[in-house]
Design goal:
homodimer; 29% helix; 246 residues; 5-stranded parallel β-sheet
Chain lengths: 246, 246
């Protein structure tokens, strides 16, 4: 038996956001590897082994998955959302590059999924209907100076922004610093959305603007959207960024 | 009977990239509305009416969909990829805002899907594994000066870039102008990918760098990816952007 490694995303919410391909891969996997919270969303099939692990150990998890695949298993590595957006695919390739050279010959496939930003955007209307930037506020793995540089660049380019990892218990401060900076760079009436746990039972959407936004409501399950100068609001329900500037 | 309007994305490629939700919506729709090329990927069910239209008439198509929904039909508006990324969702909300006020009370839902950039990224590894910008080069609906400003901002912020609509028969020049500008702003060895028709039979991937890239190979089915300073290549097969800067 030849092993293989499939990297899939469960989407950010309900099973109906799985792709048909993700369903297939999960049905055919001998081993499923991922962060506990994502593993807990699945039911193991007969003979299938689930390997849950803590957050923040992505590289160890990736190496373990590669070892299992090299030993002949059919391994599915799972992420929430899409596996390529601030998720496991990058960790796996980091492990491939740094690891045993034989890992480069493994049968590895990344399968696209529904990312949290697409789900949040859909829930709100079409805020990402035009040019946008996607960035993580986490400075666990990059210096804050780079986050700041990218916030300045995105604001200067009048991009819509989708901000991942705005805050965590260990990093309560970044989102406040980011908003302080954005308030210097963007108009006070810029549309701001805190889209929390979209598609899940505890989903919460807060639609506000840059002047009135309270960044302390953001947590690790929140995606923050900041409108460009063109982003518009329809009543209290929808926001969208038009396809053009008229 | 009360009408409704569901805005769904078919993904950029095969049916296995549909979400389960998209399958459900298409199965329950009385009327399916979209660009001919996307409509042609589906088989009408018994009693279902397909309304194909030309490209570049998004607003007319959106109004027609809203009228049908207002008349009591269960309407699915389809896009390729995700409906919120340079696609029909923005056109529908533009039509809602400008149209009959009663349209605001319609039951409208946007359903996320697999976007072309996520599929292209998955095919290549994990190029979007860290901060990135997404922009369209089309100046049909926005001035070229804004495209240029955003290219400069993205380059200045050392973002990975995902470039939609790089060229068309009517706009062969933009991608050349964009590359001329990017060559001033980014190192010559920046990774460049032309990801054409990913997931379709005529899929083609060209992995190169900024100095050697030939932008004339880009067409309307091509997504162009430009790496950041951190984006890495593993042999001739994979590219990824690490989760951090070490």
């Amino acid at each position: 038996m030849t092993g293989r490694l499939d990297i899939v995303g469960l989407g950010p919410g309900p099973r109906r956001w799985f792709t048909l391909e993700t369903e297939e891969i999960l049905a055919g996997a001998s081993d499923v590897i991922g962060y506990h919270s994502y593993i807990d969303r699945l039911e193991p099939l007969a003979g299938q082994v689930f390997h849950g692990s803590d957050n923040r150990v992505e590289i160890d998890r990736a190496r373990f998955a590669l070892e299992l695949a090299a030993s002949g298993k059919k391994v599915a590595v799972i992420s929430g959302g899409d596996p390529g957006i601030f998720a496991m695919a990058a960790a796996v390739f980091e492990a491939v590059e740094q690891g045993d050279r034989s890992w480069r010959d493994l049968d590895i496939t990344v399968h696209p999924g529904v990312s949290a930003m697409l789900a949040a955007a859909a829930r709100l209307g079409a805020p990402l209907g035009h040019d946008f930037c996607v960035l993580s506020l986490s400075d666990n793995l990059k210096p804050w100076s780079l986050v700041e540089k990218r916030l300045r660049a995105a604001a200067g380019g009048d991009y819509v922004m989708a901000i991942y990892n705005p805050a965590s218990k260990a990093r309560p401060r970044q989102i406040h610093d980011a908003f302080e900076l954005l308030r210097e760079l963007r108009p006070a009436n810029s549309i701001v959305v805190f889209a929390r746990a979209i598609g899940r039972e505890d989903e919460q959407v807060t639609l506000t603007n840059l002047a009135e936004a309270d960044p302390s409501i953001a947590d690790m399950s929140t995606l923050v959207l900041i409108g460009s100068s063109a982003t518009r609001r329809i009543d209290e329900r929808w926001i969208y960024t038009p396809r053009g500037f008229s």
